[in-house]
Specification:
Blueprint (H helix, E strand, L loop, with lengths): L3 E10 L2 E11 L4 E5 L6 H9 L6 E6 L2 E2 L10 E4 L11 H11 L4 H14 L15 H14 L4 E5 L7 H18 L2 E6 L2 H7 L2 E6 L2 E6 L1 H6 L4 H6 L6 E7 L3 E4 L2 E4 L2 H4 L8 E6 L4 E3 L8 E10 L4 E8 L5 E9 L10 E6 L5 E3 L7 H4 L2
Parallel strand pairs: 3-8, 3-9, 6-7, 7-8
Antiparallel strand pairs: 1-2, 1-4, 4-5, 9-10, 11-12, 11-14, 12-13, 14-20, 15-19, 16-17, 16-19, 17-18
């Protein structure tokens, strides 16, 4: 096992910059997740660590060894791909043993390692089958097993669950977490699925347009996003964003007003300036009686989700013009109907204030 350290790493393809100024350190034995929208550069980062792509600029360390010029086969990392990359003409046992045979491991040791890995992943009964005879989940276990059998210093996983159906993805995600707890191998996992990022990671690295946006624990990123991109990308349903003008005492949303908490007053915002306010659906409640501190909205869609209800609404002005869309999460004890007008009470302690030009979360920066 080993730490992984990227120092100002960039990867460029002729005139296209895939990643730029990537710096982070994964401590020995931790599980880090790279997350971001498609095309943001997260898989490129993984490929540079594996040695499948060359570093254009910066330094890359595995343990204390700089590996910029070291070939992929000598980096002692194991990569699990989205499409599993199993050899179709080999049995499961032969797939598991492939990396060990390439290292010229003794046959007796290979068999013992295969048996141990197969038992831990519950694929011992599949050793004589070929990949075409396996389900997607079984193929994924074999791909993981092949990586584990090598006993590498680092695991690299590139969206390994994206081809599985929802239930199998949930089950395999839990198995992955248990597997890491048992093996303790340094792991870097790439996904665009925020649920995988939040549930698996010791630390989450949010990437957008080839640059790191924020590195923090899952809970910190959810509660204190550094900018509007992070805030809206993580969370399902996503954070509500309201375009407002600050008048010195409150935020004005067309002809309605959102009061300021003491925390907001301490930010010394300039009156007349525009701000995007962010509030997560679970921090909104339907008030029993409307007053001037509440937002009046009209229900447009009601989505029962079993343990909760997602209510989509539009904020109205006096002429019933839609000025913003908001989502509310609520318990299924009472169900609003489409067309209902509701007074909403926002938990001002969880209000995010974003600069509409830079996207920075001013309420986090000033803390």
């Amino acid at each position: 096992m080993a730490r992984v350290y990227l120092e100002n790493v960039a990867r460029r393809f002729t005139t296209v910059t895939a990643i730029e100024d990537i710096t982070f350190e994964v401590p020995d034995g931790q599980f880090w997740v790279l997350v971001g929208p498609s095309g943001c550069g997260k898989s490129t980062i993984l490929r540079t660590i594996a040695g499948l792509d060359n570093v254009t600029e910066g330094n890359l360390y595995i343990g204390d060894r700089r590996v910029n010029e070291i070939p992929a086969r000598q980096r002692d990392v194991a990569m699990v791909f989205q499409n599993y990359a199993l050899y179709p003409h080999m049995t499961v046992a032969e797939n598991l043993a492939f990396g060990l045979r390439m290292r010229r491991t003794e046959p007796k040791s290979i068999r013992a390692r295969i048996d141990s890995v197969a038992q831990s992943l519950d694929i011992a009964h599949l050793l004589d089958r070929q990949p075409r005879q396996l389900s997607g989940g079984q193929q994924q276990r074999v791909a993981l097993g092949r990586a584990i059998a090598r006993q590498p210093q680092v695991f690299l996983l590139d969206e390994p669950l994206s081809n599985l159906d929802a239930q199998l993805r949930d089950d395999t995600r839990a198995e992955l977490k248990q597997l890491h707890q048992r093996l303790g191998i340094t792991s870097i996992y790439v996904t665009h699925d925020q649920i995988e990022a939040m549930t698996l990671a010791d630390q989450v690295v949010v990437i957008n347009q080839g640059r790191i946006q924020q590195i923090a624990s899952p809970q910190e990123i959810y509660a204190q996003p550094i900018n509007q991109m992070v805030a809206t990308f993580l969370g399902s349903p996503p954070m509500n964003i309201l375009q407002t003008i600050y008048n010195g005492d409150a935020f004005q949303l067309d002809r309605q007003f959102i009061p300021c908490s003491d925390r907001v007053q301490n930010l010394h915002l300039a009156p007349g300036q525009r701000f995007n306010l962010g509030i997560r659906p679970e921090h909104i409640q339907i008030a029993s009686q409307p007053n001037t501190t509440h937002l009046m909205v009209e229900v447009t869609v009601v989505e029962p989700l079993g343990r909760e209800i997602l209510v989509r609404t539009v904020v109205l002005n006096e002429n019933r013009v839609k000025v913003a869309v908001m989502s509310i999460q609520m318990l299924p004890t009472s169900r609003p109907r489409v067309g209902d007008r509701l007074p909403l009470q926002l938990d001002l302690n969880h209000l995010c204030i974003f600069d509409p030009t830079t996207g920075k979360n001013l309420s986090v920066i000033e803390r």
